[in-house]
């Protein structure tokens, strides 16, 4: 029970009395609600006032960026004299941010927006980019103290305050391992996996980060990455000598997961680029996997209303059609993650509710320079009357005839190294059905197995990587792995050997090596079957695997085919003036 007296007004009454559809000013589409968090100290109940403001008047306020938490765990606060329930996690955040001696004006989505009003949510979510951009500061709440988080922040400050040489010496100190472990836990917090965080922080003028009783500036937090990059070899030697995955997390997780860059009217990234980079992030509402990114994309003016009355299927189909129609490319269909879409979703439409099991699959979707399997041809695409069928033009390269075993990353990094090595060995035996065993074939095999290339954490020259990996591929391990007998421990491998396999494994994840009828080797989705077709589609940067079905095709996913990724097959097809086919994908 709240000690302070409160009225019996319902939540609906609170928002109805502060309607954003004010008849006195119906022409202002930029109205929103701000809360005034009243001063107090524990154990006093949280009290706030809710008022309507307009972005057109440039009000002073701070915006909160946080994790909602379990929606079933609710705690009451007093809002405009009435009880209003909020999540326990938000309650903890507001208690931390409440001043003892003065009020604090905040924008907090869970309170400022009537979450039960779909029409209001649709309009207000469209304003969120401007709301965070107009705030004097964005307050990032990572959560309460946990996992020795104070040690992580102390390590960040220590590293920021020393030179590169001294940092190397600092890393060797015995107590630093505990601090780096704490930093790993900080970078793995759920906050960094929220899709809304990207817009909330990217649009901010200034950011301050809070974790329990501690706080740190966004600038100091981000500066740690340059330092870690410079000392990564020392980290591998003195701290994580048998765990390249932890080094990868330190270099790429936490704030780095947001892949920030200041946006402006002339440099908004494409919606597809943002969806690709952040598809493994979480949202409470599946629609927000898309809606959270529209406002900081080049589609912000053309996407249309962020309609919360639309179904998940219709929203994702609308998104794919919008991207294809505006970009004149088919690259959006290549985001398929080969594990089945939600019911009712066509195979060419990405299911943004899916997440990666462990690591993001990088190679094919993040290649620089980008692939161009169809040369510079634009997509010649149309949609069926239902909107769920995609008609496109292209041609068939060949049919799949032989397949290697599928490979998936597991949750145990040492096991991943051995599993990846076993997959490489089995794929190599398949590959040798089409190619001789020589240095040129070895290089080609690694290009195919890794989708063209890989980017190791350690700086190992490419020829040395080939030698290292094939020394291991040729070692007598397949029988042990296939028979499930104890395989040699990954600890017996050297740092560079583990790193080479680890780097390759991230690109092999969710894939298998296949051979076509004419002995073409390619990296394909794990569920590719014999008889599937390797195709080039106009406007698609990658070859794709299609599965024939009566009067239409199913999309299996994108593929890497060595020697045709930059339009070679397309150009030959054009020179020979062969006819293009029309494919209906459903």
From TrEMBL:
Sequence ranges assigned to domain Heterokaryon incompatibility in this UniProt record: 61-200
Signal peptide (from-to): none
Domain of life: Eukaryota
Short name of any one Pfam family annotated for the protein: HET
InterPro entries from the UniProt entry: HET (IPR010730), HetReg/Transcr_Mod (IPR052895)
PANTHER family to which the protein is assigned, alphabetical: ANKYRIN REPEAT DOMAIN-CONTAINING PROTEIN 39 HOMOLOG-RELATED, HETEROKARYON INCOMPATIBILITY DOMAIN-CONTAINING PROTEIN
Protein name: Related to heterokaryon incompatibility protein het-6
Species, as recorded: Phialocephala subalpina
Species classification: Eukaryota, Fungi, Dikarya, Ascomycota, Pezizomycotina
